[in-house]
Write a structure and sequence with these properties.
The chain is α/β, with parallel strands linked by helices. The chain folds into two domains: about 5-50 and about 105-170 and about 290-370 and about 395-405, FAD/NAD(P)-binding domain, CATH 3.50.50; about 70-100 and about 170-290, D-Amino Acid Oxidase, Chain A, domain 2 (2-Layer Sandwich), CATH 3.30.9.60. The protein has helices at about 15-25, 50-60, 100-110, 160-165, 255-270, 270-280, 320-335, 340-370, 380-390; strands spanning about 5-10, 30-35, 45-50, 70-80, 90-100, 120, 125-130, 135-140, 145, 150, 170-180, 195-200, 205-210, 215-225, 285-290, 300, 305, 400, 405. An eight-stranded mixed β-sheet has the order 3-5-4-12-13-14-11-15, with helices on both faces. It has a six-stranded mixed β-sheet with strand order 6-2-1-10-17-16. The chain has a three-stranded antiparallel β-sheet with strand order 7-8-9. Helix 1 packs parallel to helix 3, helix 1 (about 15-25) runs parallel beside helix 7 and helix 7 (about 320-335) runs antiparallel to helix 8. It is elongated. The two termini are about 25 Å apart. The relative contact order is 0.17.
């Protein structure tokens, strides 16, 4: 399928990958609409990529070895044990991952988007009007333009998804992720080559080293727990998020929520990890509500979804960015094989729809085990930990697991 006009709504990791896929597929004219300005590269949170998924995506041309990364080899799960500096180890598991800085990964993908792609920043899509021959997009400034195909890469509050499937939106999981990055990487166990999960009743915190984008490293961490009934984030602005807390930007935590989270860390974390979190600068901590999103199809008419616009998996699966890049890879393959827009989009939906559903289901199970119904960590040793971990993968697609879904042939 060659030629035609394509709009990509959203210009972050998923959007850049989708634009690259459309270009490789042979689209004639591609326009990316990104509502943020060009400071996306400044987002410094961590991303983990399983070694096997990295190799698949590198071979497909969506990742490159020159992107700065930090190696991870094992994951250590620990609980507080009196005043023991690092607590007591509950379990250790292999962790063949590469840790990235979000901004560095986005910058590389943005660099790969061909120059003939129109990448427009500071543009908000406010209206979506499909017809038999394509889709008209209406922008906040009143401008309208018609495209043969529109790809929604605009995240969990996607306007494209709402146009495709009205009312199908984000479902709040019932807990939050308190996130932060700190320049203090002194004394990290295993010279920073281990990811660390600090566990406590009702949640856990994952911490690992990432590149800082300037040749050094930062400590990236995310703590999952249920927010307090009062003093937490304000209700979210989207009707799809009714009952959910809203995101709180860096430096914006209320005194009440800050006090609650700091008290939790002080009570439940080993001294070393409590110090790392509590010394993280307030301006680099924020709140991320945890959501599930699942769509009936990845396509509808002349519209398609990629990344979090299509499905949102809870972060426990360690595969959010992997899924977005795999979506783009599958879209490129469908483009190359299809002889009409209808065939391209049907092929893409058939390939990615089941994968998205499998990953959402697995991530829900992991969230239930790791946050909503945590075990008695104090009674665990390696054998008990191994049995608990295996229980989270029961019934899952054999190609899906922690780190994402394999795109290798069956």
């Amino acid at each position: 399928m060659r030629g035609g006009s394509v709009a990509v709504v959203g210009g972050s990791i998923a959007g850049c990958a989708a634009a690259l896929a459309a270009s490789r597929g042979g689209a004639g004219r591609i326009t990316v609409f990104e509502r943020a300005d060009d400071r996306l590269r400044d987002r410094g949170v961590g991303i983990g990529l399983h070694d096997d998924r990295y190799e698949e995506l590198r071979s497909a041309g969506y990742l490159a070895p020159e992107i700065p990364w930090a190696p991870l080899t094992e994951r250590v799960w620990s609980t507080r044990d009196g005043e023991a500096e690092h607590g007591r180890v509950v379990g250790v598991q292999p962790f063949p991952f590469r840790a990235y800085n979000w901004g560095s990964l986005w910058s590389e993908l943005r660099r790969r988007v061909p120059d003939d792609v129109s990448y427009r920043t500071g543009v908000t899509v406010t209206g979506v009007e499909p017809d038999a021959d394509g889709v008209t997009l209406r922008l906040a400034d009143g401008y309208e333009e018609h495209f043969d195909v529109v790809i929604g890469a605009d995240g969990y509050r996607s306007v494209i998804r709402e146009a495709m499937f009205p009312g199908v939106g984000a479902a709040y999981a019932g807990y939050i992720g308190w996130r932060g990055t700190s320049p203090d990487v002194t004394g990290l166990p295993s010279d920073g080559h281990s990811a660390h999960n600090i566990v406590f009743p009702g949640g856990h915190c994952m911490a690992y080293r990432i590149p800082d984008g300037t040749g050094g490293h930062r400590l990236n961490w995310i703590l999952y727990t249920t927010p307090p009934p009062a003093g937490g984030p304000a209700p979210g602005p989207s009707t799809a998020d009714r009952g959910a807390p809203g995101s709180v930007p860096p430096g914006g935590l209320s005194p009440e929520l800050t006090a609650h989270l700091r008290a939790l860390v002080t009570e439940h974390f080993p001294p070393y990890w409590a110090d790392k979190l509590l010394r993280t600068p307030a301006e680099s901590t924020f709140i991320q509500p945890i959501y599930d999103v699942e769509v009936p199809h990845y396509t509808s008419g002349r519209m398609a979804l990629v990344g979090d616009a299509a499905t949102v998996t809870r972060p426990h699966i360690g595969a959010g960015s992997v899924k977005a890049l795999q979506d783009a890879n599958a879209l490129e393959a469908a483009w190359a094989a299809g002889s009409s827009w209808k065939e391209v989009l049907e092929r893409y939906d058939a390939e990615r729809g089941p994968v998205g559903s499998a990953m959402v289901a697995l991530a829900r199970g992991m969230g239930a085990a790791q946050v909503e119904n945590t075990p008695d960590w104090s009674a665990m040793g390696q054998a008990e930990f191994d049995a608990w971990w295996q229980g989270q993968n029961k019934g899952s697609d054999r190609r899906s697991g922690f780190g994402g879904h394999s795109i290798k042939p069956r």
